[in-house]
Specification:
The structure holds 2 protein chains of 2 kinds.
Chain A: H1 2-10, H2 13-38, H3 42-49, H4 52-85, H5 91-103, H6 106-117, H7 121-128, H8 137-161, H9 166-173, H10 178-207, H11 210-216, H12 226-235, H13 239-263
Chain B: E1 2-11, E2 14-23, E3 28-32, H1 39-47, E4 54-59, E5 62-63, E6 74-77, H2 89-93, H3 95-99, H4 104-117, H5 133-145, E7 151-155, H6 163-180, E8 183-188, H7 191-197, E9 200-205, E10 208-213, H8 215-220, H9 225-231, E11 235-244, E12 247-252, E13 255-259, E14 265-271, E15 277-279, E16 289-299, E17 304-310, E18 314-320, H10 321-327, E19 334-339, E20 345-348
Parallel strand pairs in B: 3-8, 3-9, 6-7, 7-8
Antiparallel strand pairs in B: 1-2, 1-4, 4-5, 9-10, 11-12, 11-14, 12-13, 14-20, 15-19, 16-17, 16-19, 17-18
Helix pairs in contact in B: 4-5
Classes of the chains: A mainly alpha, B alpha+beta.
Chain lengths: 270, 349
């Protein structure tokens, strides 16, 4: 502490001002988030977290986010590789389109998905062949995938971009096909970036609200993921349940942030 | 053995504009050229990384122009080694053998044999990022050699190394080539490599081969101005070097040239024309090499003229026109040539 004061007293007005603003921000955020955790009594909180509704929401969130994250990886790996290594016509247009959900409000993505799976020609055709997505658990997965796959692609792209393609060239002269060079060399070298992408995509899927709300609806104990549970309970005045769901989300965010910090160096996140 | 005909490839700013090359079995073939000449693309196209826009590549009477790299029997070593960072030295060297699903004992023996030849078996459990540049380059060469390729492609293998390591590895490359009898195509922009390594040399410029020949042919009869400029050593002689008190005395035909290089045996000596002082009488100076000769030719061109003096071997000297006038030089006149021992560049022959 003494050292800190010594260092502060030596620092210029310039650095003192900037550091003070940073400190104020950190304190503000800490109080806001910490306050939420400390607001309810511990016994009430425990009761709410273990209530069937919150338990259902946790389960549903874990399952849907796991499935949508797996889909994100399966699609993002080849797409990111193609976008890094190959040149093809209309590449920049493709780039814009696949990045659009990044800057789009998730609510708008939700409306677009609702129209696509609902009254549109394709939605009508899907329904007549027995596939109804809207207001189902599948809709949660679809909405999470649609909003988050661009993130996964971006992180995976930067992981591939730092790998010199000559590693693969050498592997191919040593007897690898393009497939096996990719599997044996590029994938292991990109592993850290892929894990970072996986964690951030998963945590964003769990937190996804807008697009899920519109495509899957907010039905208690049916399409009630953790963010939907927060929303439903706030609107009915059940503050303890809303806070319980929020605290679970904070915990998940904290864990994934720590994992991301550990694996995420060398990848750029937007 | 390897016949490349009319090879065309454009890749970004680099291109091959109709490369023709014939490389003999077991040859150590060097390709010399400036940055941007297209040397690396040429190697990568030979290896099969890129399929050419035109032309053919024939290896041992087999058209491999569109063969997959893994089936070509061509090994590749890059300047920056490209050792797989997630694998140990042993796993790197054995990588190619593992792709062939050979039993592990055979792989280990082969890896050991290759690694021992390159003196890196003791590093087998290390990861590439813990190795020095020279060690990494040996591991990369071992990885390529372990498969017993018909042709080994070396892309500036010595450029990233410090001078001492480079010279040691250069000697080792020569030894390896002698032992393995593998055909080697080696890209470089160091002309020392030519004398130490090459059986034949190709000069590459702007995506084409401008001259092919033995090192002596390339240096003594540069066919284009580019080659002459790039090589730059017009007085080039073959000789035998003997060491004496930290210096070397090189017997070149009837004369002996002193140099500061610590080198022995078969050598080439090069002296740049502008390093040779021409005088009417011998003079006392710190320069140790003085020879008497006869002017056989005077070529007036531009600001500098070149005169050829026969001093037992023909020397080319560069003088200004004013100097030639002042000394009253003419063909048939007797002159003295003087140059410092440090102006003599000696390379192993």
């Amino acid at each position: 502490m003494e050292r800190l004061i010594q260092r502060l007293s030596r620092s210029s007005l310039f650095s003192a001002t900037f550091l003070a603003i940073s400190a104020a921000l950190v304190i503000f955020m800490g109080i806001v988030i910490g306050g939420l955790v400390l607001y309810p009594s511990q016994s009430q909180l425990l009761a709410s977290i273990t209530s069937p509704e919150i338990f259902f929401a946790i389960q549903l969130s874990l399952v849907t986010s796991a499935v949508s994250t797996a889909l994100c990886i399966i699609i993002a790996v080849p797409v990111a590789y193609a976008m890094t290594r190959f040149s093809f016509p209309a590449k920049s247009l493709a780039n814009v389109i696949m990045n659009l959900p990044l800057s789009l409000p998730p609510l708008v993505a939700g409306v677009a998905l609702l129209i696509f799976f609902g009254p549109s020609l394709i939605g009508t055709m899907l329904r007549s062949s027995g596939i109804d997505v809207v207001f189902t658990v599948t809709a949660i997965i679809v909405a999470q995938f649609f909003v988050n796959v661009p993130y996964m692609i971006r992180i995976t792209r930067s992981a591939f971009a730092v790998i010199n393609p000559r590693y693969e060239y050498v592997a191919r002269t040593l007897g690898c096909s393009e497939w096996s060079a990719f599997r044996q060399i590029t994938l292991p070298l990109a592993a850290k970036g892929l894990i970072a992408g996986l964690v951030i995509t998963w945590s964003k899927s769990i937190g996804e609200f807008g697009a899920v709300l519109l495509l899957a609806g907010a039905t208690t104990m049916k399409t009630e993921t953790l963010p939907i549970a927060v929303y439903l309970n706030i609107s009915t005045g059940d503050l303890n349940e809303a806070i319980a769901a929020s605290i679970v989300l904070i915990g998940i965010a904290l864990i994934s942030l720590l994992i991301f910090e550990h694996y995420g160096d060398g990848t750029q996140v937007i | 053995m390897l016949q490349i005909t009319g090879l065309i490839k454009t890749l970004g700013n680099f291109s091959l504009n109709g490369v023709n090359l014939h490389i003999e079995e077991g040859e150590y073939f060097l390709i010399l050229g400036p940055t941007g000449a297209g040397k690396t693309i040429l190697l990568e196209t030979i290896a099969g990384i890129y399929s050419p826009d035109g032309g053919t590549i024939i290896l041992q009477n087999r058209d491999i122009t569109s063969t997959d790299p893994k089936n070509r029997g061509i090994g590749m070593v890059y300047q920056d080694y490209m050792l797989f960072p997630h694998l140990t030295v042993e796993e790197n060297i054995g990588f190619g053998l593992r792709q062939r699903h050979i039993d592990l004992a055979t792989i280990r023996n082969k890896v050991r044999e290759t690694a021992e030849m390159l003196g890196i078996w003791h590093l087998r459990e290390r990861y590439p990022d813990t190795l020095s540049g020279g060690e990494q380059q040996r591991a990369a060469i071992a990885r390529a050699l372990a498969l017993g390729p018909q042709v080994l492609l070396l892309d500036e293998p010595l450029s990233a190394l410090d001078v001492t390591t480079r010279e040691r590895l250069r000697r080792e490359l020569r030894t390896i080539h002698g032992m393995m009898k593998t055909t080697i195509i080696h890209i470089t922009h160091h002309f020392e490599d030519i004398f130490a390594l090459a059986d034949r040399v190709a000069i590459m410029q702007n995506g084409t081969i401008v001259q092919v020949g033995t090192p002596e042919e390339i240096f003594q009869r540069p066919e284009t101005e580019f080659v002459a400029l790039f090589t730059g050593m017009e007085n080039l002689f073959h000789g035998i070097s003997r060491r004496r008190d930290g210096e070397a005395l090189i017997d070149v035909g009837p004369i002996s040239i002193q140099t500061v290089a610590e080198i022995e045996g078969d050598v080439y000596v090069g002296i740049r024309p502008e390093e040779v002082i021409v005088s009417r009488e011998p003079f006392e100076s710190s320069a140790v090499n003085t020879f008497r000769g006869t002017v056989t030719e005077i070529q007036q061109n531009g600001m500098f003229s070149r005169i050829v003096v026969d001093a037992g071997v023909p020397f080319v000297c560069a003088l200004t026109r004013q100097s030639i006038r002042r000394l009253g030089l003419a063909e048939g006149e007797t002159v003295y040539l003087t140059f410092k021992a440090s102006a003599v560049h000696a390379f192993p022959g």
